[in-house]
Amino acid sequence: MFPFDLLSFGAVKRNIGTARAFQMMIESWNMVCARSLLRIHIDTSLRFSAAWLVDEPHEFAMRVLKGERIDKMKDKDGRRLTDAHLVSVHTAEHPWLPDVYKSLSGYVHFSGSHIYDSVASVGDQDRTVSLEVSDVDLKFPEFSWIEVLDCFRETTSILARYLRGYAETKKLSPAELEEAKRQLTPRQKEPPSNP
Prior knowledge:
By secondary structure, the chain is mainly alpha-helical. The chain has one domain (3-110, 140-188). The protein has helices spanning 3-27, 31-49, 57-65, 83-90, 97-108, 112-117, 142-170, 174-183; strands at 119-122, 129-131. Strands 1-2 form a two-stranded antiparallel sheet. Strand 1 (119-122) and strand 2 form a beta hairpin. Helix 1 (3-27) runs antiparallel to helix 7, helix 2 (31-49) crosses helix 5 (97-108) and helix 2 (31-49) runs parallel beside helix 7. The radius of gyration is 20 Å and the shape is elongated.
């Protein structure tokens, strides 16, 4: 058992719990909470992937286990592992990520997003505003529900890719792992090359 194994178990546990809660929110037509959970889900995948940006993934895992904040740690190039940096690392492969991340950040903390979601309609002619305070969000069009589901699936695939990479790495002997690391260019250093 390695420190990174524990980090992996934590990521999987958070993923499973978030996925179950997300399913419940979709089934109950609660878009506000579904979006909050999607943002949490993105956080798990991004922060788990940070281990591939550091020199010593097991040390990184130990620091997380000791309670250090990932966004205060630095990658092997000296850049802080902020959410913005982690989003930028994944943008080439997931171009939807920056806009979705930015939009969903308003759902984690109470913000204007919650106010706008309470508006049911705005009258063009008489300048009236109808508000709806409910735990059911039926005003969202079908494409919004599909989009949130697609983003959740894509985010799951990010985490799954890194977990598969780590599983493959665990099959290698220390000598095989070092040889694999030497053969990879910096651009190619993705799962299963690091932990």
